[in-house]
Amino acid sequence: MNSTRSLDIIIVYQGVVQINLTDGENYHMLDIMGRGSLIGVNNVVNMEDYNYNAEAVSDETTVLLKVSWDLIEEMMLFDEGLMEKVLELR
C-alpha cells in the first residue's frame, strides 16, 4: 500500500506495516502496525485524504485487506445504525 490517497480502510491481516509521513522527498516513520490494526478509519469518518503511506516490512509475510469506500457506503444504506455511528464520530 504505497502512496495511499483514498477513502479506504486497510486491515493488517498478517504481518507488519510501517506508516510513513512524506513530503515527496523525505520520509518520517510515524508508527509500526501489526496484525489486527486498522489504517484509515479516521480518514474515512472525516472524509479526508491520507497524508501518509504504509509499506509492508516484509512483502512475503504481510497480507492486507482493503475495505473500499463503495462497500462502506453500501453497508450504511442497509444499516441505519452504522450510518448513525459514523455521523457520531464526525
Please describe what this structure looks like:
With 90 residues, this protein is of the alpha+beta class. Helix content is 29%, strand content 34%. It is built from three helices and six strands; from the N terminus they run E-E-E-E-H-E-E-H-H. It has helices at residues 41-46, 69-78, 80-89, and strands at residues 9-14, 17-22, 27-33, 38-39, 52-56, 63-67. It has a three-stranded antiparallel β-sheet. Strands 3-2-5 form a three-stranded antiparallel β-sheet, with no helix packed on it. Strand 2 and strand 3 form a beta hairpin. The chain is globular. It starts with 8 loop residues before the first strand and ends with a helix. The relative contact order is 0.27. Mean pLDDT is 81; it is low at 1-5.
Radius of gyration: 14 Å
What's the number of extended β-strand segments? 6
- Indicate the mean pLDDT: 81
Q: What characteristic shape results from the CA principal axes? A: globular
Q: What proportion strand?
A: 25-35%
Give, in order, the helices and strands. EEEEHEEHH
- For the termini, the CA-CA separation is 26 Å
Helix/strand-derived category reads alpha+beta
Number of helices: 3
Helix content class: 25-40%
Regions with little confidence, pLDDT below 50 for 5+ residues: 1-5
- Quaternary state of the chains: single chain
* Major sheet details: 3 strands, antiparallel
- Major sheet strand order: 4-1-6
